[in-house]
Amino acid sequence: MNTPLADTPAMSAPTRSFHVIGREVLELLYQHRVLSTHQLHVLLTLPEKRPARPVYLRWQLGELHQAGLVNRIRAHGAGGRGRVQSQPFLWFLTEVGAASVEEAGELPPRPYRVTPESVAGARQAHTLGVNEVGTAFVEWARRLGHECGPLDWTPEVANRIRDGQRRFEDDHVISDAVLNYVHIERGGRRTMLSFFVEFDRATMTSARLAAKLQSYGRLYEYVPQSADRTRRMLNATRPAWMYNYPVFPRVLVVLDAAPPKAGVADRRPQRLAARTEDLYTRTVADVRLSRLKDSINIGVTTLQQLQEHGPFAPIFTPLLSGTSSARPALTDLYLSTK
Description:
By secondary structure, the protein is an alpha+beta fold.
């Protein structure tokens, strides 16, 4: 059975002095769980300050690996787990590496720990895809003179959408990521933007994805209440999201699909166009979302479009505007059709 083999360095890390890039690697892996060598190179490379080739980064990763702070496995192949040795390395923190980041106290602590088994699991491509979305935003922010850094998205952020003690997944909407971006216009005007990011590899049904988007309508309206009526505040009418976000974040759905096997025609553009059509039909027909269409913005694009054209190009289909007979025009990340 062809499964990625994990390197297992010694868990005791000697006291060593690492270059600043090494510390940044540890912080990125702590926040984003698993990153490829290429993703790390893009996120950490500023052409005017660092070498263009990833040779130094690879050396630094080797040092961190030898010290027992990071671990690595080979990525799955495009068609599954075959041809392991031809796949790039994926990097993640060891227990010692995670503890070193927490000891520094620079990042909010996160309770999970990454293991070789979890990295090699079924969600590997999804986790890397979410980080591809964040990496695309970082690259375009650099090109456009905006602000979005390697730590400006947080994966798997949960927000409660109703009172109760059901399964966690039933009481919360868990965004694939929350991303922050500062749009700097000519003249220096700064607009701070936040986004709920949903990354979909066309592995779940469009009905399930649409149901998750409908949960954002519940989040917008959810006002927490105490179980004890006598203790409820008279002014307990403030939606829960307002305690975490100055304005309700826009929802960005980014679609992708696995490449076809050798010799099979590439029908990904048609598949993703059909998925966009299905999402539009389902969301525009949802009663709650239709009622909230002036308060919530949801848009969908593809990872390829985001990477090639950037978030300020007209690449997003607004899902709560227009009608089935009069579709809205494509728009940028503001999702404004006015």
